[in-house]
Hints:
mainly alpha; 13 helices; 77% helix; globular
Amino acid sequence: MPILAVIVAGNVGNLFHAPLLKEHPMWLVALEPRNRFLLLVAQKGVSFWPFLAVAAARRLISDPLFYLLGRLYRDRAVRWMERKMGEGGGVVRVIERAFNKAAPVMVFVLPGLPVCVLAGATGMSPVLFAALNVAGTITMVTLMYQLSDVLDGPLGAINRFYANNTRTLFIITFVALGLYLVTQYLQGRGELRSVSSIEKELAGDDAGGGDVGTEESADEADGEGRPSEAEQPKDTDRR
């Protein structure tokens, strides 16, 4: 599944972000274009157009995949997303409420896993989603590039710290990320496991999940648009 490749690329980027930031900053952007990485890479003086092309393309690879996930699996995709967010379930509910009130704005300003899944699950037009997603992504990447000039001093200090402590930071990241992934896996919330779980859910019930998205039908479910907290498992983006 392409989503697995996106998740693996992001984890590789996070793991090697210190050496990549020092030696191959554009590879870091290609693997994991988080805002903090975009700011640090932009401060290093990379040209704008290659920066925009790589960052926007990478983000625009993952967003349509999550939209398609929601489009195909509907409510099951939303439940999977809530489990994946785990302890961030409260944040997910805030995003869901905001999405019900201003879906186009959310797709433009905050594209990412929750918003893109909701856009697909609620049946947003693919053309509208694509237009908002592309425009919003280009706008946000451009904003990060320009903001790096405003924050040149602090960002430069961080980049120098990375350059002088690359090996130490890599070891710390390796240990921290390893512990996180192991803990998530043992608790049944590993990212690779959570991606594959939605296929098992679909195979277990061929009826296909119901639509989500209208505030009225959400209220009928439990007053918030999602399963009750008793049914919820516990556990950026972007950005």
